[in-house]
Structure prediction request, 179 residues.
Amino acid sequence: MFFSLSPDELISHRLEDPLLPAFDCRREAQNRFLRESAWHDQQEWLSTTYLYYAHGILVAYATISASALTLGSRERPRAIRRKATSAIKLLQFGVDRRFQGLGVGTEVLADVIAFARECSPRIGCRYLALDAQPDLVRWYEARGFLINKAEQKHRIAAAMGKRPIDQIAVSMRFDLMDV
Prediction:
């Protein structure tokens, strides 16, 4: 089945019910999170999930929460004096397989960035952070995200001998003050 979408056809709203329509983003961890954890975590105020629909079909979702981001001294701007700084975290993100390659992911990410920028002056938040699967790092970099080198170095050291390096999620950030 092939679909074509324009950005104005994408409608988002907060998850309002534990029952969801069929969704498959080809990543079982993200599918399972949406089915089994999103509603519970939202009820416990741990995160909030936003659903994105087009023509009544669930095409994507994004889950966010408050977080902190640890940056090395060479990674943070001079104005940031603390190692840990505030962040909104994109915890989970998925685009239904039928809509992949149509720009939906880029539109949803732009919506999440716009939301984070809107909130950041009110709550004191500098970054949008996420943990990218290694195969998606270039996709996020093309959209302005940077790898958190100090955090990634720590993750790799902690995983040595336990997991292959190419399977370790990559800590990334987007500076909300960048225009």
User: Anything to note?
Assistant: The first helix runs from residue 28 to 36. The chain has a mean pLDDT of 92. The chain is about 30% helix and 30% strand. Strands lie at 11-14, 48-54, 57-70, 84-95, 127-132, 146-147, 170-175.
